[in-house]
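Database export, one record per block. Field names are fixed; values are copied verbatim from the stored entry.
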Amino acid sequence: MENNKEVSTTEIVEEVKTDAVVKEEPQKEEPKKEKLYTRAEVENIKKAEREIILKEQEIKRTEAEKLAKMDADEKHKYELEKATKEKEEALSKLNAYELKEEASKIAREKGVPQSLINIIDYTKENAESIKTKIEEIEVVYKQALQEGINDRMKEKTPKTVVEETTQTNKPRASF
């Protein structure tokens, strides 16, 4: 029995050694190729970023100047209009998202590919117009699909070979 224990422990030790050797081998990783930029390219990137920041600051500055020139009632009215505009934009985006989800559901039911309904601008549509557009897309899609099937199913007309008979090819009648 002691031999069995020794064999099993040596086997275990060998297994551990082989596992350790496998783990110790360095895995060859391909170095990531990063793009190197020239000084001119870096300067152009910096310049573009500076221009963006300056434009944002200019917008904020003009807004602050505009507010500074207004009296209390005008400020209140301006801020109210701004908040109303932001609210309408947010509602428009939410409505567009909901319309897109509903259109996607209708298109799946009708078997219309999603890529065809992605061309619709949902921010300018309402539920009724979306439904009619999907129905129009469905009709056109099914017609195009049927035409494609018909084109594939058409068989080419068989070629007719006309044999020219000559005097030598005519069989002789034996009497």
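Remark 1: The two ends are 108 Å apart (CA to CA).
Remark 2: Residues 72-110 form the longest helix (39 residues).
End of record.
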